[in-house]
Amino acid sequence: MSIKRAIVNGNQRVEIVDAPVSQLPWLKSLGCFSEIIAYRTRVFVPASDAEIVLGRILKAA
Questions:
Q1: CA proximity to 35, closest of 19, 51, 49
Q2: pTM here?
Q3: How far is residue 14's CA from residue 7's CA, in Å, rounded to a whole number?
């Protein structure tokens, strides 16, 4: 997995790229959300809570 900035529908977002499907429930439990865009599930970190959610993810890594 890697973290990058993405622009989706004109809005900047923090995206977690190449997240294994088996880890989606875990990422969602930490505060992330997913969207299906162009038949692909993409995982994002909410911008309002990005610092907290990314801290949880990095602490668990």
A1: 19
A2: 0.87
A3: 9
Token pair 């969207």 is at which residue? Answer: 35
Confidence of residue 52 (pLDDT cuts 50, 70, 90): very high
Q: Are 34 and 44 a contacting pair, CB within 8 Å?
A: yes
Q: Which phi and psi angles does 32 have, rounded to 5°?
A: -80, 170
Residue 48's pLDDT is 87
Which residues neighbour 24 within 8 Å (Cβ) at sequence distance 6 or greater? 34, 41, 43
Residue 42, both tokens:
């993409």
Q: What is the C-alpha separation between 19 and 27, in angstroms, rounded? A: 9
pLDDT digits (tens, 9 = 90+) for 9-38: 898 999 999 999 999 999 999 999 999 999
Q: Which two tokens stand for residue 5?
A: 């900035």
